[in-house]
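I am writing to request your help with a piece of structural work I have in hand. Thank you for your consideration; the sequence and its tokens are set out here:
=====
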Amino acid sequence: MASVLVVEDDQFVRSALIRHLTEASHTVRSVGTALEALREVAHFRFDVVILDLGLPDLDGSEALKMLRGITDVPVIIATARDDETEIVRLLNDGADDYLIKPFSVEHLSARMAAVLRRSRVAAGEAPPSRVIQVGGLSIDPLRRQAELDGNALDLTRREFDLLAFLAGRPGVVVPRKELLAEVWQQSYGDDQTIDVHLSWLRRKLGETAARPRYLHTLRGVGVKLEPPGQPGSHGHGPHGHGPTGHRPNGHQP
């Protein structure tokens, strides 16, 4: 099933679309303006966007161009306009398909299925993702496998996503808000969710918050992953131990 963003300002149409898509087991988020749509796409991953052209803040054709500036997610235009010239222009501007209102839910389902098939085939033709190497960590995003010093790690889906995301940015402090958006696909949430998964991940990496090797948290800032032995890679447990914090047993390795 797909993750769908519905961009529609007509509350009646919007509710009907949400109901139909949810009944079809899709995950649905919905907004009523172009700017809200841009924010959603910037913070969440979607499989398809259903975009109305008659939005109150920005014409849908302009919204389409702005969407194409930040994402390649498939976009199906939903419009009452049936001018062939405009439809051709929208397709040339990056729309993947279009539906002229009013349309049936069956018609929408068929168009969505076709667009999703095309996008998945295209994704399958993409070159394999490179294996990420950070110190003794080896992470293969394509096969969703991770090893530490040659030993396979038994990770849950979320643990793997978190590790792979951080490993793709070695040495970079990633804000918790970004982790929630990219790993959990949430614009807000409880920091405890991140802390719990970090704790589980540390256990599997053979380290602790008090004595980190790869995973380092900086209080009030975020989390970073880097190979052991990097300058400044020690002394940053969950409470941000550093020059002003207490380090048990003196200097940590």
Observations:
- The mean pLDDT is 82.
- Helices lie at 11-23, 34-43, 60-68, 84-92, 105-124, 157-167, 176-182, 191-204.
- DSSP finds eight helices and twelve strands in the chain.
